[in-house]
Amino acid sequence: MKKILIVNGPNLNLLGTRETAIYGELTLADIENNCQKLGQELKLEIEFLQSNYEGQLVDWIQQARNDADGIIINPAAYTHTSIAILDALKAYDGLVAEVHLSDIKQRESFRHHSYVSLRADKVICGLGAEGYEVAMRYMAEQLGSL
Ligand code: CA2
User: Fold this and answer.
1) Looking at domain 2-143, does it have CATH number 3.40.50.9100?
2) Which residues sit opposite 71 in a β-bridge?
3) Is 113 among the residues known to form the active site?
């Protein structure tokens, strides 16, 4: 079975508790449940992770080189700052999909630029939690897992 790593960056553990007008009502645990269910349908093994630490995210991306066929990543605020995460993704040979709950291009100007987009094979913004599911369907199609 093909394996997908879903990596979430800082503060996404707070989803559903505050800023629900921007990020939606679902918690990260709700999003993981939805992804695990869809993974069964699409015949994809899903590992779902979150960290507030940039180095931890880099370590997980490095480990995925020997372990996962694709990475779905919402790097959160590190999207706009982290060359370290970009470099780790550049060292990864599999598929990369970048997901944002909100439409970063329609928000403050400091959110408009994404370092991660320089490596992403697909970028999905502004679809809320559904963006993760769109990314999973993209992975399933590309990897021929269905
Ligand atoms: O739209 C997205 O998914 C973002 O990656 C979310 C990040 C933000 O820094 C990016 O510009 C866009 C922020 C995630 C923080 O989530 C919170 C949820 C509840 C309460 C506070 C923060």
Assistant:
1) yes
2) 5, 96
3) no
